[in-house]
Design brief:
This protein is mostly helical. The chain has 2 domains: about 50-115, Orthogonal Bundle (Helix Hairpins), CATH 1.10.287.990; about 130-230, 3-Layer(bab) Sandwich (minor pseudopilin epsh fold), CATH 3.55.40.20. Helix content is about 55%, strand content about 10%. It contains 10 helices and 3 strands, in the order H-H-H-H-H-H-H-E-E-E-H-H-H. The protein has helices at about 5-30, 50-75, 75-80, 85-90, 95-115, 130-140, 140-155, 200-205, 210-215, 220-230, and strands spanning about 160-165, 170-175, 190-195. Strands 2-1-3 form a 3-stranded antiparallel sheet. A hairpin with a 5-residue loop joins strand 1 (about 160-165) and strand 2.
């Protein structure tokens, strides 16, 4: 082998080595990551306090993500399917992992949806499109808030309250326990409120009703409108 061929071989080997390290690094990256909150922890004051937002996002949501990465190590398909597809078909998850996936993937999806709904800077009142949909489903915004509050107070223990578009094409308010999602029942969520105690206890203690009332002050109705359009498409 002459010197020219030797140099070509060394160059090719070096490139292959770099590519191999890049692939290895990509494989080492976590399958799931905690999405940034997208706004300051104090952005929802006084309705939701700064400390609650920090702990809720950086501790509770982060724990679901960490658990998901462990689960993905045991069942690689978890990281390969769209999250919504897995949550809509939990029977397709191995039985021994199903509860853990239901809780942690549901927790990750629910919270990601929740943070977006409260993004500051959007409309403070429903658009006419959303208002019309609410009138058709609940009679009006006052009635919707009452239905959400009743569902939230009626949820025993931890859970969520949703306004979602069902398979029948109608909007409905309902609660789910723990980290269950509307996706499991074929519904497409429009808005949601987290009624786990960690979402409100530092500020409101046992006054879940006060938290629900205050939470409406944080809702970005532009996000609700976008969710409605997406669900109705």
């Amino acid at each position: 082998m002459n010197r020219r061929h030797t140099l070509k071989l060394l160059a090719a080997t070096a490139v292959a080595g770099i590519a191999g390290r890049g692939i290895a690094h990509a494989e080492d990256e976590p399958a799931f990551t905690l999405p940034p909150l997208g706004y300051a922890y104090d952005a929802l004051e006084p309705s939701i306090d700064t400390t609650t937002m920090r702990i809720h996002h950086d501790n509770h949501h982060a724990a679901y993500v960490a658990n998901l990465n462990k689960l993905a190590g045991r069942w690689p398909r978890l990281a390969q399917r769209p999250i919504e597809a897995t949550l809509a078909d939990l029977d397709g998850v191995p039985a021994e992992l199903r509860t853990a996936v239901r809780n942690n993937l549901g927790g990750h999806w629910n919270h990601s949806f929740f943070w977006e709904l409260m993004t500051p800077g959007g409309a403070r009142t429903p658009s006419e499109e959303v208002a019309a949909a609410i009138r058709g489903a609940a009679g009006g915004l006052v009635e919707l808030k009452a239905a959400v509050k009743a569902a939230g107070l009626g949820q025993f223990g931890s859970g969520w309250v949703w306004l979602a578009l069902g398979r029948d094409g109608k909007l409905a308010v309902f609660a789910t326990a723990n980290q269950d999602t509307p996706l499991a029942r074929g519904a497409k969520p429009i808005l949601a409120i987290d009624v786990w105690e960690h979402a409100y206890y530092l500020k409101y203690q046992s006054r879940r009703a006060d938290y629900i009332d205050a939470w409406w002050n944080t809702l970005n109705w532009d996000k609700v409108a976008a969710n409605l359009r997406k669900a109705s498409a």
